[in-house]
Design goal:
Length: 364
């Protein structure tokens, strides 16, 4: 069987939310549209999208927000505008920034801005990582939480010091908040309090929210209007945003309300993992509803283990698995959502024990 077929047969799935088929998703969207009298927008002009943009801005504590078709387009545009306004001085980015890791050098090849790598690739930023930069900067882009290192957060005091430093020096402070909703639960603070002090915030509409795609950029009315114009210039002016907005808006409040429960379930999972030393979790304690699990087996062996657990026990422990830094090691990301929240405690313990046993057999 293919991996897709194996996953479909599994009754215990660790990562994320329960996947909806296109038919299920579109039926739910149609029912919500019918119940709420939704009409299509036309090039972003319409009651639904403008109302949802205002709602996201309100939750984040900003004057305005605008929809963009992708986070990749959203972020480089925001940082390009910040750099243009400050004489094209460099933009400071963490070595694990999405722009470096996943965006195929777009900032460089398309001439958006110059980037300065700063900080330790295995640690979140401290205030000293930013305040110690001798160069003049146009912007600082901070991912909250930092996905590539297991969802780690900068310490709250460091975050406040970075905000104060950028404000005092006129540096544009941008947040890669693709998982900001999750980070607020980890910080134990309202989203608006985390976002306060940033000049712009990007948020995803499909990761934790579970929509079809798309993003929002929040900031001042003037900056958001300028960014919206640049989204159009770069090909982001699709005639109807409504499918993406409906998919996110119909479950937005529900997902935000569920974030604390996802975080608590992550803490439970972490405690279960600690009973099996062969499974090493990063970070040392959960800081959002995600973590990385490191294995003392190769990526190829980890994939074999996943197939065995799916075939023999109906357990799907992870999606993508990555090569580790050391030989014959690997790691995978776990985003905790509805799937694990809805799985009984005993079944989680049983599934983790089966995973650990399979890993131990695969060592060497």
């Amino acid at each position: 069987m293919t991996d897709t077929e194996l996953l479909a047969r599994c009754t215990t799935v660790f990562p994320g939310h329960r996947a909806r088929t296109p038919a299920e998703m579109f039926a739910a969207m149609a029912a919500w549209c019918d119940a709420n009298g939704i009409a299509h927008d036309t090039y972003g002009d319409g009651a639904l999208i403008q109302g949802f943009e205002a709602r996201v801005a309100e939750v984040l504590g900003f004057e305005a927000a605008v929809f963009c078709i992708s986070g990749t387009l959203t972020q480089v545009t925001a940082l390009r505008l910040a750099a243009d306004a400050r004489g094209r001085a460099p933009v400071a980015l963490h070595p694990t920034a999405h722009i470096f890791v996943h965006e195929r050098s777009n900032y460089q090849l398309l001439g958006h801005f110059d980037a300065l790598r700063t900080g330790d690739p295995y640690r979140p930023w401290t205030a000293a990582d930013i305040t110690g930069i001798p160069d003049r900067l146009s912007a600082v882009a901070l991912e909250i939480p930092m996905r590539e290192i297991g969802g780690q957060l900068s310490a709250w005091d460091d975050l406040q010091a970075i905000k104060a430093h950028c404000r005092a020096r006129g540096i544009h402070l941008h947040m890669d908040g693709a998982r900001l909703w999750e980070a607020a639960a980890g910080y134990g603070r309202p989203v608006a309090e985390v976002a306060a002090g940033f000049d712009t915030v990007y948020t995803s509409l499909y990761k934790g929210i579970g929509g079809l795609g798309g993003a929002m950029l929040a900031g001042s009315r003037e900056f958001v209007a300028q960014a919206a114009e640049w989204f159009k210039r770069q090909g982001g002016n699709v005639i109807h945003r409504s499918p993406y907005v409906v998919a996110a808006a119909m479950q937005f409040e529900q997902r935000l309300a569920a974030m604390p429960a996802y975080f608590e379930r992550t803490r439970f999972l972490f405690d279960v993992l600690r009973d099996h030393p062969v499974l090493r979790a990063n970070p040392a304690r959960p800081q959002a509803n995600m973590l990385h699990v490191h294995l003392p087996v190769s990526r190829e062996r980890a994939l074999e283990i996943r197939r065995e657990l799916a075939r023999d026990h109906g357990i799907w422990p992870f999606n993508r698995v990555n090569h580790g830094v050391l030989p014959d090691t690997s790691f995978f990301e776990l985003y905790v959502g509805d799937n694990l929240v809805d799985t009984p405690d005993g079944r989680v313990r049983e599934a983790v024990a089966l995973l650990a046993a399979a890993v131990e057999r695969g060592i060497g």
